[in-house]
Specification:
- By secondary structure, the protein is of the alpha+beta class.
- Helices cover about 25% and strands about 25% of the residues.
- The protein starts with a strand and ends with a strand.
- Bound molecules: N-oxalylglycine and manganese (II) ion.
- Manganese (II) ion binds near residues 110, 114, 116 and 263.
């Protein structure tokens, strides 16, 4: 019988141990992990390198798998599963991509505060990111707690946004970065998703300020006012007091709840190899 041990991180998240993620999870372990995610929203497992098979099996135990942006491009990839996201600056042939390669834009886009796949229905629930090769400097990942962010809003703001809904679009962040070379068909492949700015977690009852870089307008507001509101809310949500910064070690598995957090990668030299691998589950309606 394995037993989950948790050590809280600051200002949120927890270091998790006691369950071998490379082995099939029993129902009690699944429940323990879900309960821990409800409370901490980010779990850091050290020294748990997973093969692709193990990572997929672990993710499947927690929900149906999400494909995210990989729906758009079906080009060659390095993995045995289309469901694994290649969070790296490495091309399909295994070489580090040069800076003009399309893959690098994806790396830059990951450095904007976002919730994975918030641009689709269903959105992503858990992301599970495994560190394989790390650069000598930088490349940390930061997480902001959207529950703490909601709780800290002034009352006038809570009232203002109570019934507002944001439109999230898959290519908005790409367009911001000048990555506009998509066919009309690609632009329509993932239609925008609409999410209330204020969400109530069906499992914990906690309120969540659901913003991120994929949000591009607020229903019923002008583009300008809506975007300003989104930027203000995201700035509020990502104050340092709500942010856990993860310094990676090879073999780390970090999982986060995309419905309760936003995250971003930090600067590293794209000339240096950085390889992480992500499996993601879809949110299942409560
Ligand atoms: C991701 C992501 C950031 C990073 O895997 O979803 O945004 O630091 N990663 O690589
Ligand atoms: Mn991400």
């Amino acid at each position: 019988m394995q037993r989950l041990t948790l050590t809280p991180l600051q200002p949120f998240g927890a270091l998790a141990s006691g369950i071998d993620l490379s082995q099939p999870l029993d129902a009690a372990s699944v429940r323990a992990i879900e309960d821990a995610m409800d409370e901490h929203a980010v779990l850091v497992w050290r020294g748990q390198p997973l093969t692709q098979d193990q990572q997929i099996a672990f993710a499947r135990a927690l929900g149906p798998l999400d494909m995210g942006l990989r729906k758009l491009r079906s080009g060659p990839h390095r993995f045995d599963y289309a469901e694994l996201a290649d969070i790296s600056n490495v091309k399909a042939d295994g070489e580090v991509a040069d800076r003009s390669h399309a893959k690098i834009v994806g790396n830059v886009a990951n450095q904007l505060w976002h919730s994975d796949s918030s641009f689709q229905h269903p959105r992503a629930k858990y992301s599970m990111l495994s560190a394989v090769v790390l650069p000598s400097f930088g490349g940390e990942t930061e997480f902001a707690d959207l529950r703490m962010a909601y709780d800290a809003l002034p009352d006038w703001r809570k009232r203002q946004i109570e019934h507002l809904k944001a439109v999230h679009y898959a290519l908005h962040s790409r367009f911001m970065l000048g990555d506009t070379d998509y066919t009309d068909e690609q632009k329509k492949t993932i239609p925008p998703a609409v999410w209330p700015l204020v969400q109530v977690d069906p499992r914990t009852g906690r309120k969540i300020l659901f913003v991120g870089v994929h949000a591009c307008e607020i229903e019923g507001m002008t583009l300008a006012e809506g975007r300003m509101l989104i930027m203000d809310l995201l700035e509020h949500a990502t104050q340092r007091e709500f942010v856990y910064r993860h310094h990676w070690q090879v073999g780390d598995l970090v999982m986060w709840d995309n419905t309760a957090t936003v995250h971003r990668g930090r600067y590293y030299d794209f000339g240096e190899r950085r390889e992480l691998r992500r499996a993601t589950t879809e949110e299942v309606a409560a």
